[in-house]
Predict the structure.
Amino acid sequence: MKPSSKHLLTRLFSHLYIERSILDHPKTHKIRAKFSESQVIVIDHYKEVFNRSSQSFAAQSNSKKLILARKEGKFLHEGSQYSDGFEHEQFFYASSVMGCLYDCDYCYLQGLYPSANTVLFINLEDAFEQLRPYLGKDTLVATSYDTDTLAIESLTHQTREWLEFAAEYEQLHLEIRTKSANINALKSITPNSRVTLAWTLSPQEIIDRYEHTTPSLEKRLNAVIEAIALGWKVRLCIDPVIYTENFDILYPTLIDRIFSLIDPKAIEHLTLGSFRMSQNHLRALKKLRRSDVAFYPYAVSHDMATYPESIETYILEQLGIKADEYLPQERIRTWQRQ
Amino acid sequence: MIYIITALDAEARALIDHYHLTRDFTLPYTLYKNERMVLLVSGMGKTNALMAVSALLGWRIPNPADCLINIGVCGAPDAYPIGEALLIHQIFEGDRRYYPDILYPHSLRESSIKCVDGVQSVLDEYPVDMESSAMFQASARFFKLHQMAFVKIVSDHFTPETVTKERVIELIRSNLHNVDKVCAAVEKVSLSDPLFDQTEQEEIGRLKSHFTKAQASALDDALSYFRLKYPQKRLPSYPDIPDSKRERSQLLEALIKTLTH
């Protein structure tokens, strides 16, 4: 449940927790300069703060703090069963940031992490080192899984670093998934045909209700239009679809709105998927008691909670029919349980 | 309820006067209360603090909207003027670290503090006190991290012999406006509206008693869905509960459908 004290919001990243070992790292200096008014608290390891017991994810969501750390161990993880690997031989996601600037009620991060704070790992070069041995094969890396990297690009410059790295490796494909409207971050970078910018789009009513602090639909659409004009490959994702009583109006209208502004030929794919989540994460979401999304009577099978099959099929059929008006079948991808 | 903890009687004196607290003899500790607050004097040092706070919170277990404020004096380096109130964001105790969450705006200087075992006359790079780590440890079992605050008022620059009882009373008294603000801020950030009021909770409890544990859990979810989705709407009235198990299951199914439609 959301605290009733929204008027007490502190400024974003009012506190910077910084690992002692990276106090003198150039990236640390740059970030400190951007948040010169913030309290700086020196820590030995990010887990001291991020993994504390007795944190309130819900309360912290209104006053997120930034933790700067050096990642030890794996940056790369096998792509999840909940996501589309687009038939690439290898599919990884990179975890260079933990936590997201945005605050979406349906987000699995609420179940995955004990804290709403953001951990930024400043040693992205180690992720590249870990990835290099795999790059003899066709490989997809999703860079924005456990966060929205483009949303904090002005702070981290990680998207730029990924794009510069990808430019050197012909077998490397990137998916940068975002809800951000921060297209300016990409304007000085040469588009790469192996990089897909994937925007998650939702009806404005759904954004207002469930996607707190995210850019409006119109801002996202304008960013998409600009990205296409700049020459970027773009995928649009209506995923997750949240089933509501006015689903039949909201989502078809969204598709019409999208293609009234965007030439269907200019997008690579439209991805459709209804809400799904591992049962463990859903349990954690329920404990927060923040949103109705957590409490819908989902069907649970193989540890995955989804809408009951009849509703899931209805969602995908309805949206498929509408999408067919604009796109050929092969460019419409749907996520459906197996 | 705001739980205020001080180590010393002198630290409590001005707070007792300011908040019009009256003595309570329920526990074998110095305890004062009013309708909004309970104040405990723990005694000096970590062991006393740990025991006293545990006793208090075990006696009156906090509810989710309660908060705890530790108020006291501390020694500090020269850079911290005598009389300045500090809001603590990191507590050291040996190799251990504790971090209260400060999720509200405030105008105090924030600081780390080192929790030591005895009165300190040797210069240190951080402010020092003798109870904060123990109070944190005991409280973190009962409170979320944003529901705790540690306010320390600088009493000396590692010259504890200069700190008299009268001086401590005066230091706290001159910072009552800061204490007021921190109490109000922590209290507000701790508030959360329960999904269901007392009457609704009682009705829900009665309804659930007719179902199995799994059914009651599904009903709980559906009720939470309804309330979160339609916060302005009243819960639907509950039908008579049939005797037959099969009919009860059908009723539950219909209820869940209505609530989650």
About this structure: Chain B has a mean pLDDT of 94.
